[in-house]
User: Fold this.
Amino acid sequence: MLSIFGVGEAPISITSGPDEKGFIDLCVRKAGRVTGVLHGLEENARVGIRGPYGNGYPVETMEGGNLLIVAGGLGIAPLRSLIRYVLYRRERFGEVGIGYGARDPESVLFYGELQNLLARTDIKCMLSVDSVPESSRWQGQVGRVTQLLDKITMPLEGTSVAVCGPPVFYKFVLDKLLKLGYSKGSIYMSLERRMECGLGKCGHCVVGHKYTCIDGPIFTYWDAINLPEIF
Assistant:
């Protein structure tokens, strides 16, 4: 949780990896009062940090197998931490695939890092945008992130899938993953956008009988499928 004193606080994902000590990276979109004030702060201004809260992607379970990471839009921000965890321990994973889709070239986050991943031979990384303005010099792929899943071929056996993106993204990506044959228990999805206080006190994050900030925010698709209004 990130707070601006006298203004309020907002749940923000940590994007740096657990091996990077002495600092944390945050990726913050200007989308409300707190984040608006944050974007106007000068360097070295004081902010408040509390947490982290909830669980994370089960890396201990994922290690020893294959891993497919699928991100949409700002969903790449929390998944960046997982990606960096994997890069520090590449030898502990089998095949690794990354598919990231953004609205347009200007919306792509961490572009330089993604270019490095695209150049690697030990990771299947693909990037696409939904549309390209006529004035853009974009030379990459154009299309939905679901189209990337047809190209990033992974063994169905022994593969975990980490997913994060906006609500509409989940509906189409999860349907696609199931059609490709991935099991509901191997797909891990984040509901962190529902987090509020982080302590299970305010009740804003309750989905069905689950508290997102206590029981999640990472759920398997199997666990989340019967929760109301998850998309």
